[in-house]
Amino acid sequence: MGLTEERLIKNLQTMGKRVLENINQGENPELEILTRALNNVYYDNSTGLIKLGDKSQKRYYFNVNQAKKFMQTLLIADRIKWLMEQGKPALSIRQLFYTLKHNIPGSKENTFDNQDESDPIIEDIEVMIDALREQLKLIATPKGVLSGPIMVKDKTGDLLDYTKMGSAGGAVPPIVEDDFFHIKECSADFILVVEKFAVWNLLNQQKYWKDANCLLLTGKGQPARAERRLVNRLSTELKLPVYVFADMDPWGYYIYSVYKQGSINLAFFSEKSGAPQAKYIGFMTKDVKTFDIPKSSHIKLENVDLKRIEELKNYDWFKTKEWQDELKSLKDFGNKIEQDSLVAKSIEFTAKEYLPYKIENKEFLN
Amino acid sequence: MGLTEERLIKNLQTMGKRVLENINQGENPELEILTRALNNVYYDNSTGLIKLGDKSQKRYYFNVNQAKKFMQTLLIADRIKWLMEQGKPALSIRQLFYTLKHNIPGSKENTFDNQDESDPIIEDIEVMIDALREQLKLIATPKGVLSGPIMVKDKTGDLLDYTKMGSAGGAVPPIVEDDFFHIKECSADFILVVEKFAVWNLLNQQKYWKDANCLLLTGKGQPARAERRLVNRLSTELKLPVYVFADMDPWGYYIYSVYKQGSINLAFFSEKSGAPQAKYIGFMTKDVKTFDIPKSSHIKLENVDLKRIEELKNYDWFKTKEWQDELKSLKDFGNKIEQDSLVAKSIEFTAKEYLPYKIENKEFLN
């Protein structure tokens, strides 16, 4: 589950102590930071995750181009440490920016002018002390909802039972780390991750999670950090199989890969939040024939879709034979199928026929 | 609370019967539909709501330009009636489209080609039978979360206690009509609607809803239909005062007005979902001085903000003296203040000082 709060505070302290040592020894104070640029991001075949490489760079105090950034890095690290020590509520990264933005006495300079300056430094610090920002009590807005047989003890002390969350399902909280979202019990056999809310909602109304004994989650399209991290925890800690159900188009396939391998832009987050065991349950080209999907549900692929298919083909994590075949097959078919469209077969089709068939016959892409 | 399901089915039936009468009497079958164009939308000063006027137009079967649309209108009305009679789960408007899109036998035509065709007709039917789409079991994706002393009996049978929803708060469900979301008990003194999730989250972590004995809701920026309708129900049925807390900029002011008076684009929805008693609690220009907001939290108004201020000035529902003064005062001040920025005063400032002061001194804009 990663580092304790105490350990994280210690790591931040160590960071400061090293700078102090530099000063005491009359050296130019420096910080070493793993490079987060694309040239230091790679797909690690052995773990099945998008990861950050080991290239690093140094940030110096006595360097005209780096002095301000150096000062900002220490300011942010210090503030994060203070917030944690004081047991303050978690903040958004914009709120953190506002707590730090102020005039530097005796100058016309501000500590920060724009959030563009503080956000990348927060990521630097995450990497430096090997902790996600959520572990440092910094949040992003979550989007998803969850239902199914899991009991969670929330940081507030509330006991959350996701079989009793009504029509809405349970909202995914901004922080799903163990100290905020402690999993007490889970009897589910797997987790079904659904791309779209409308499809999640249809399944939830039919209590699909009960029939299938699963957890039912949606990130409402492209998931936020909290849903990705939650799927990671359910997959790694509870060893639950993860099935991702999305549109049969390059955008749906990509959402699956974000849950599974992560994303290039958030490589450091990805290596801690991917679910490399996740499988793609559909919709897939093979299903069109198996389930006799009516022509009226076919939507012609546009140029932008075709271009995206080519891009996917070239991602290392889509280079398995199954996926290369699927991408070719989608292109040849020339049409996409949205998961919403399965209601054209019948309102119950997704819950009663499609998903049970796919799971029983283990028809997944990997 | 509007019409019962039985009544709505009857209304749909009546609609069909009238067409049948036309046919039996050898007349050109017709449907009369209130015009939803901007020229039939107005602000009703007496109720404080944006409303649809009484201009209407007829849609005929024997009219080359209208025949397809006439057929589509009956198809949709018939399908909605069938879904309700069968007790089927609620669908999204895209799913409804897919259940109806098919080839017309013996022709090369489809019933519908694009959702652009079905969506406006759903709105026509809402207006024709005087029911929101949610009452017809058609959903839009909700966004918001809620916490505070309210107990709800959900359609699923689950009893939802919004004081026990943990860090996430309770997700707002897609349908908040009484048969889905039955309010059993509510001891709150008012409802605080917060523009941004990050600020809601800060207040929720501090259990502001407990200290202030209120409901705490966010629609995460521009609210979806469900949050607007929920605020309407809490305001009209429970007579709870509604305070909207947003950014001090024309975009924040406008979000307040969407909760209160509604929006031009959804005039029919607005007259059923506004909360004309809602008050604007802040952030407002007067507060800058009262609370000595540091210069570093001021963000210069851009041209796009200034242009939007002028637009707001011209909306009928911003024509009160208070709002005209506030808009002028914002322009003169030349800066906006985000609600997030109040953490610069202190992490506890919003919950412990700002909101209590504003409420105690009834410093609202109306």
Written overview of the protein:
The structure is a homodimer of 366-residue chains. Chain A is an alpha/beta fold and 366 residues long. The first copy, chain A, has two domains: 5-139, Arc Repressor Mutant, subunit A; 187-360, Dna Topoisomerase Vi A Subunit, Chain: A, domain 2, CATH 3.40.1360.10. Helices cover 40% and strands 17% of the residues of chain A. In chain A, the strands form six sheets. Chain A has a six-stranded mixed sheet, with helices on both faces. A three-stranded antiparallel sheet of chain A has the order 9-8-11, with no helix packed on it. In chain A, strand 2 and strand 3 (49-52) form a beta hairpin. In chain A, helix 1 runs antiparallel to helix 2 (67-85). The longest helix of chain A is centred in the N-terminal third of the chain and has 20 residues, at 5-24. Chain A is globular. Chains A and B meet through strand 5, helix 3, strand 10 and helix 5 of A and strand 5, helix 3, strand 10 and helix 5 of B.
